[in-house]
Structures are given as structure tokens and as C-alpha cells.
Amino acid sequence: MGRRIACGLVIAGLSFGTVRPAAASPDQNPAAASDSAPPSAAPVPPPDTAKAPHVDEPWVAGPPMDPLPGPRQHRALTGLGLGAVYLTLGTWAYFAWYYNKPDLPAFKVGGDGWFGRRTYAGGADKLGHFWGNLTFSRLTTDLLRRGGWGPWSSSAIASGLCFTFFVFVEVKDGYYYEMSPGDLVGDAGGALLSMVMTNWPALDRAIDFRVQWTPSAQYRSRFPGDIDFVEDYSGQTYLLAWKPRSLAVVRDTPWLRPLGYIDPVIGYGTRNYKPPGATEPRKQELFIGVALDLQTVFDDALGGRRSRAARAGHSIAHSFFELAQLPYTSTPILETTRTTP
What we know:
Number of helices: 10
Number of strands: 6
Order of helices and strands: HHHHHHEHEHEEHHEE
Number of domains: 2
Radius of gyration: 23 Å
Strand order of the largest sheet: 5-1-2-3-4-6
């Protein structure tokens, strides 16, 4: 069965904590006291780091991370954070998908199809698995990076752990619904893309894969009794976005900079497949269109701020809008629709 974990955006804040080393006082550092400027000296302006390259930093944009003292200690802490992420996810999955659900008489494999018009979700579930693995792999990669892990090791651990978790989900599905090879392909693709984007920053700057969710009428009628919001496929649209701001000419040319706020996108969504209960025909929608790049909006609004609140807000907004698109901020230009009675 299709599974997608939009709740990853809710617990993403686990990966944004930074630790500032305590500043040394003059008593602790006599050299610093002797080198300090006299009261009459002109203040020294802070260095201009706006264009300084940060080659080895996590995918979260903005000012470089504060140095983390005691890397071994922080590796242990980020390991605990990683465990908390999957404990939370596993608990939610149990109550959303398996609690009080009847077992199948025998283990079942396959049968859910791919993008066929008569499949149970019209193919949106496959993109959901792709997005879910991309999301959790990226968020937990960033968590490990902040604990002192390198880009390759953190991405390999995070993506491998994420894919393994979803393999176990599919195995359990085999006893309650069906184990889907197509879902596993989506899982593997999302985890692999996370690794590639972490270690190939140019690709990370150029594309996003986002979900846009507006709760459907069918899901709203079932809530709060049904907490499986991740399978509200009738309210979801998946967007593959290309970011013009990845081009230096767009970033550095004043009259071209506005182009960075609008992303060309390829979008796909299904309507009236799942949740059940729709009275209208089922539809699959594929389109080429544009979307507002809210990541760029917040980068420009908060990227130069130095306060702790602005830095935290910038990191959270940058991560959120790398993975999600707010409702009504994208529109199709060319669209094709396939309808099934």
C-alpha cells in the first residue's frame, strides 16, 4: 500500500539545533585581553561573508553553522536524535496503518500496480514513497551533519536507515494489505536522490521535489477519526521544480533576479482515488506550470540577518520550502487529464 510521510515536516525541527561555543573572557584568555582595541579605536566592521563560498556545509542554506565543540559527544547526541525521529515515525505508523486492522489470511505481494488508471491511487502513492524517503533522508542527513559527520558518511547512514525502515513497513504491509515492489522502487529512488543531492551541491541548487497539499473534502469528512493524512492523495500534487536562481546570471544580474522567484515545474496529482467516498470520476492530472519559490523569498528576507531568531527562522523556512509548496502557490500552464469512471 502506498505510504508517504508528510509528518516529516513536523519533526524537522529536531535537526535545526545549533550550539555556540562559549566566548572566552579576558580573564580566561589574557592574549585576547592584551590584543583588544583601546576605547578610542574605531570599531572594526564584521567581515563580509555574503559571497564567501561554504563548500563543505549542509544543504540548509544561510550563514555557516556554528562550530560544534566536542564532536564525539555531539555525534552521540545526533544518534539519539535519529532514534527519536524513527521512534516517533514508527509509533505514528502503527496507529495510522495497523492498529485494529485485520490480518490477511496469507502474506500478499504485488497487485497495486504503478500509474494505471484503475490502480488504487493512480500512481500518486509511488511518488509519495519517493517524496517520503527523500524528505526523511535529507532531514536526518542534516541532523548528522550538525553532529560532526561528513557529507558522504551522513548521507549514506541517513538514506540507508530510511530505506531500511520503509522496507520493514512494506514487509508488515504484506500481512495487512500487500507488499508492493513499486513502493520499494519509490523508496529506493528517494533515498538515492537524497545522497546524490547532498554530495552534488550543484544539483541540490538546481532542483526541488515538493508536495503541495490541500486537505480534500473526503479527508476532512473523516478527520479526526482518521489520522492517515499522508494518504490523502486527492489533496496532494507533486512538483518537480527547476530553480532559475541556480544560474549565476540570474543571481548576479539585478534585472534578472525576479526570475528567481518563479520556478518552472512538472506536476502530477490524482483526484477522487483515495480517500474513498468521492462521487465524481477519478482523474489523473499531469501538467507543466510555474510555482512561487518561497525558499528564495525567505532566503532573501532572512539570509542576511544575524540574530538567533532570524537564523533559526531562515534554516527552518529554507528546509520546509525545499520539500513543500503552500496551497495555491502553483498553477498549470499546459495540462493533460485522464478520467476514469
